[in-house]
Amino acid sequence: MPPPTRLLVASIGNPAPYLNTLHSAGHTVLRALTVPLSTPPLVKSRPHANGLLAHSPTHPITLWHSPSMMNISGPAVLTAFRAFQREYPGAELVVLHDELESALGVVSVRGGERGTKGHNGLRSLAKAVGGGYTRVGVGIGRPVAREGGEVARYVLRKMTGGEREALEGCVGGVMEELERLLEGGGK
Question: Which one of 23, 27, 48, 119 is the catalytic residue?
């Protein structure tokens, strides 16, 4: 399989007032990626579902920050990716998201057709996009209690400074995975 011409790295999470929560870890990592990718500031792009967009001048990577609530992010991702594919035929989609089943800051990579593990944002994505994309999960850990209410409180609470630092610290691992994909390493 030939390497993609360009990657659209799309983060899913929640807008304010939930932007700085663990559930929006994908957005936190996407903003941190602007440094190694030397991107200009993220700006709103109407053709790309009103998400925030920035093209890297140093890598064939474009960053896109979903404007939607996590649980209904699939249609916005699909709209943005279709617009992106018109600009860059042969481009591939990479989705950054929080991963409850991994320790804080641990990076995992899976194909988009894999199970959603109860993640409503990934479920919305699967319904809208189907498969054929790469998921990059960023670990946020899990509360000891597994009841739904406790999990919801955990992922929707404001992250601590240490948690933000750990998430931003995993950018090197995310960059390695993006470079592997650009070299044709597949999902």
Answer: 23
Q: How many whole angstroms separate alpha carbon 54 and alpha carbon 65?
A: 9
Domain boundaries, the chain: 7-179
Q: What are the CB-based long-range contacts (under 8 Å, 24+) for 152-157?
A: 154/22, 155/21, 155/22, 155/23, 155/98, 155/100, 156/14, 156/18, 156/21, 156/22, 156/23, 157/21, 157/22
Residues pairing with 61 in the sheet:
7
Query: What is 7-179's CATH superfamily?
Result: Peptidyl-tRNA hydrolase (3.40.50.1470)
Q: Give pLDDT < 70 ranges for the chain.
A: 1-3, 112, 116, 148, 185-187
Q: What is the pLDDT of residue 146?
A: 77
Contacts of 33 (CB under 8 A, 6+ apart): 9, 39, 63, 171, 174, 175
Taking the model in full, what pTM does it have? 0.93
Pairing type for strands 61-65 and 134-139 reads unpaired
* Of the candidates 51, 68, 74, the residue with the CA atom closest to the CA atom of residue 16: 68
Is 23 an active-site residue? Answer: yes
pLDDT at 115: 74
Q: Of 137, 157, 153, nearest to 145 (Cα)? A: 153
Q: What is the pLDDT of residue 147?
A: 76
